[in-house]
Specification:
Elements lengths: L26 E4 L6 E4 L3 H4 L5 E5 L1 E3 L3 E6 L2 E10 L2 H5 L6 E7 L9 E5 L2 E9 L2 E8 L4 H8 L17 H4 L7 E4 L11 H10 L2 E7 L22 E5 L1 H13 L3 E4 L1 H10 L4 E5 L14 E5 L6 H9 L2 H13 L10 E5 L3
Parallel strand pairs: 1-17, 3-12, 3-14, 4-11, 14-16
Antiparallel strand pairs: 1-2, 5-6, 6-7, 7-10, 8-9, 9-10, 12-13, 13-15, 16-17
Helix pairs in contact: 8-9
């Protein structure tokens, strides 16, 4: 299929710059049964059933945007892939990351980039605008250094005149527990303790998976045909307890409700089995889903891999109709925006 098939016109004013408060007051476009119904995220307990299982991504966003110096040169760094994940899963390993750097031409292999008195990054490799860095610090964990020197890596379509400290909290989900992401699993941003209590009272259960979201999720698709696109790789894990909860829900006839495309990608990549892996799963129309029945997700970029995913989960025609409705009804789009609840068509 051609990438242009997934294009649509989005007025710039529909791109949310801040989240609504409280979080569960965001609007929700219910697409159950192939119908479009304007609701609120607070209505989730009425839209789900007792015995359904919410699968949420418990990744935590790192302050992955850094400023470094090499001599007099000032370099902007955005971490996007932790190369230590395999070693970390085995109990330890060096602090090594892939990162986008501007200007990358100032980062030569062997150079040391000084981020602060206690944090230095050595350039191991450079490939156009991307560098591989090995961090040197005197903290117990690199995450502590990032908390001191880093900033929250908001998506490029969220415009800020300087750092807004409120983003440190509002760009984390209620479920954030395992540090490693450089972008939020944004469907999870809508949940509050009150909403979770109401869902539990309804009989809706919850389990966690982990997918450490990379900055590659914001990279544009630059090919004409989707068959030529190569996805970035991300680290994901399903715990034995979560795999058991998923199997138990299936056996009892409940539905698996993925909170966000990252939870869906984790389940479909692992088939819901316990363990960890790197996944570059690319879901497009024609994909055979086997794990997820419902998907709660935000509204995505035109021609993005995520809009392709939701079009595969339902159909391209239906998603074009749903998005046209959302734009006409002035829903808020992207990371800090509203949500939709989708039902798998096949």
């Amino acid at each position: 299929m051609k990438v242009d098939a997934f294009d649509f016109q989005l007025p710039p004013e529909r791109i949310a710059q801040t989240p609504v408060e409280p979080r569960d007051s965001a609007r929700l476009l219910s697409c159950l049964g192939g119908n479009l119904e304007d609701r609120s995220v607070r209505d989730l307990p009425a839209l789900l059933r007792a015995g359904d299982l919410l699968v949420v991504n418990n990744t935590k966003v790192l302050p992955a945007r850094l400023t470094a110096k090499r001599g007099e040169a000032r370099i902007s760094i955005t971490l996007h892939q932790d190369l230590s994940q395999h070693a970390a899963a085995a109990g330890g390993g060096p602090d090594r990351w892939r990162a986008f750097a501007k200007p990358a031409k100032k980062c030569r292999p062997g150079d040391e980039l000084v981020i602060g008195p206690r944090l230095v990054a050595k350039v191991l490799e450079r490939n156009e605008g991307e560098v591989t860095l090995a961090f040197q610090h005197d903290f117990d964990h690199l995450t502590q250094a990032l908390e001191l020197y880093g900033a929250m890596p908001l998506p490029p379509y969220i415009k800020r005149n300087g750092k807004d400290s409120a983003d440190d909290q509002r760009y984390q989900t209620l479920f954030a527990d395992r540090a490693g992401a450089v972008a939020a699993p944004t469907a999870g941003l809508h949940f509050t303790p009150r909403l979770m209590a109401e869902l539990e009272a309804k009989g809706v259960q919850r389990c966690d998976v982990t997918l450490h979201v990379g900055a590659g999720t914001f990279l544009p698709v630059k090919v004409d045909d989707i068959a030529d696109h190569r996805m970035h790789s991300e680290w994901c894990e399903v715990s034995p307890a979560s795999a058991e909860a998923i199997a138990r829900t299936r056996q009892a006839g409940g539905r698996i409700v993925a909170v966000g495309t990252t939870s869906l990608r984790t389940l479909e990549a692992t088939n819901g089995a316990p363990g960890w892996m790197d996944t570059d799963i690319f879901i497009t129309p024609g994909f055979a889903f086997s794990q997820v029945d419902l998907l709660l997700t935000n509204f995505h970029l035109p021609k993005s891999t995520l809009f392709m995913l939701v079009s595969a989960f339902t159909s391209l025609d239906f998603m074009q109709r749903a998005y046209a409705h959302a734009i006409a009804q002035e829903y808020r789009f992207f990371s800090y925006g509203d949500a939709c609840l989708l039902e798998r068509f096949s």
